[in-house]
Amino acid sequence: MAGPKYPGFDTLALHAGQSPDPATGSRAVPIYQTTSYVFRDTEHAASLFNMERAGHVYSRISNPTVAVLEERMAALEGGVGAIATASGQAALHLAIATLMDAGSHIVASGSLYGGSHNLLAYTLKRFGIETTFVSPRDAENFRRALKPNTRLLFGETLGNPGLDVLDIPAVAAIAHAVKVPLLVDATFTTPYLMKPFTLGADLLYHSATKFLGGHGVAIGGVLVDSGRFDWDASGKFATLTEAYAGFHSMDFAEESATRAFLLRARREGLRDFGACMAPMTAFQILQGIETLHLRMPRHVESTRKVVQFLSGHAAVARVIYPELPEHPDYELCKKLLPRGAGAVFSFEIKGGRPAGKAFIESLRVFSHLANVGDAKSLVIHPATTTHYRMSDEDLKKAGITAGTVRLSIGLEDPQDLIDDLDRSLKISQK
Amino acid sequence: MRLHVGGKEVFAYTANHEPDSAKPTVVFLHGAGLDHSWFGLQSRYFGYHGWNVLALDLPGHGRSAGPALTTIAAMADWLAGALDAAKVQRASLVGHSMGTLVALDCAARQPQRVERIALIATAQPMKVGEAFLDAAKRNAYEAFDMHTIWGHAPQVPLGGNPNPGMWMYGDTQARLERLAPGVLYADLKASNDYSFPGGVKCPVLFILGKRDVMTPPRAAKTLQEQIPGAKTVVIDFSGHSLMAEAPDATLDALIEFLR
Known about the structure:
CATH superfamily of the largest domain in chain A: Type I PLP-dependent aspartate aminotransferase-like (Major domain)
Shape of chain B: globular
Distance between the termini of chain B: 24 Å
Number of helices of chain A: 19
Radius of gyration of chain A: 22 Å
CATH class of the largest domain in chain A: Alpha Beta
CATH architecture of chain B: 3-Layer(aba) Sandwich
Helix content of chain B: 25-40%
Number of domains of chain A: 2
Radius of gyration of chain B: 17 Å
Largest sheet of chain A: 7 strands, mixed
CATH class of chain B: Alpha Beta
Strand content of chain B: 15-25%
Shape of chain A: globular
Order of helices and strands of chain B: EEEHEHEHEHHHHEHEHH
Oligomer: heterodimer
């Protein structure tokens, strides 16, 4: 018998989760645009509701098109399964709501997407879940912020806006020492650039809106479980290890040690909070994933060219990209991100807010908008947009200067991007 | 349910039901390196349809204390002890892979305890390849790879999981990674070394996967010849992990046989 061989990443990106549709032979993933599914009889209905048979009941809980995306992402990440959600924010909320109750505490990286920061700092606080934010530059900061009621450590694989590289092995070790899981937002890296589970993370999620979908046409998220965290041994997660009156008195870890988290997240989180993904959205994101392994190398290759160009430009004060030797996480980046540090980065333009404004308004190829991870190149100037109400002093606290510009490098001819940047930088300095 | 067998704690999944002496009992016996949850859907069905369910974690697996047992005969004797602990005189047995050998041995040597047996993915002899045994003996991850890949039909990594959103390979790997060193080797060696003594008189059902590469249907032929009158259901497209790959077809076959 020949030795065992797993399908490669590229093959999984195209196939995992779907065999040709048994009803029609459709090779593409069919869009099951339906809310619900006919039961064979009352017995069949009861057995689906009671988890005695596999299948679909109602598309808020599961849908065949969405299930292909979920299984494909689990395969690409090396997890046991996944749940697709209405957005990346919904995935983060679903993870937290599945794990903990009021009175719990989270230690999170302070270098987070603004929406995630808002959820943790303000919204969840109203529901009794407190978060301590720490600088991810030193993993020990996570340990120092631990409390007896800490239930989760959380960070982004590449932080915002300084592109801090999360030291996942070190932070995971700190989390596991106190028997809590590490959740990471892997949006900027995708499974092509990094596999967080192999580094020690327990749970991860993506804003699938970004590089997974890759074309800026659909909002979505996906939450993936490694299945490796031992909820029983931890003893800190009653939602997973005690009978749940809201679903057949099920003890999820007793049902399955590896699937407990996803069982509760689907049977409670999707059922009650309802932030599910639409089948059309799943289809659109799947189209993106089918070329992820082709797009990401090009994103990275073009980003390196643009970074190199900007690094030597007279109008640029500094470039913030972890592949540059002057970046504080340069060595960590080489270790954890050998395929590249992604396609989103920042630089500081000389001349502050007026220069930033002039630069943005002169660009022709780059699109000025609030997104990243599109096939098209994107730009935003935080001081005049997302953070325009903040003083220069407050911007500094957020790691942003009046001249900070964030770029997301797309798939255009990189020379056209460089020319666009060069022309606009010159205009900005007049 | 927590039982005690030979002074060691044993976990038995009961599908959220207290034992009822008026009901028949069905015992689920998992395969090498796995645990009770391998029968998740099927065991829940019987628990909610008039049966006492005992989906056992064999010693050293899942929630049951170790060490793992090293022969099929020892597992069958342990099973009798588990039935005693649960105050069950007689039960139907549903085994998967290594669990089929435990069911067979129990039915052959302790026929008074066994009503009928369903054998899901079985073979006799259940020869395990040298490379697989050697990797398991070395506790090398390669053994988990072999278990994962050969334990499913070839189309599984590229096909859809009937259980929405789940990735069968990942789930198998995550389960195997929880094993203490030596457990998988003990299971594989016990399966490899077992020789069925014959003499089973109770009703027997074979449920076989047409695309099973670990225990292909042809490997069950000798056993089928040793048990005249046994019924056989072959499930198209399924590999070795029938409960996950073809959960409904497997359940339907069990319902028909056990009803």
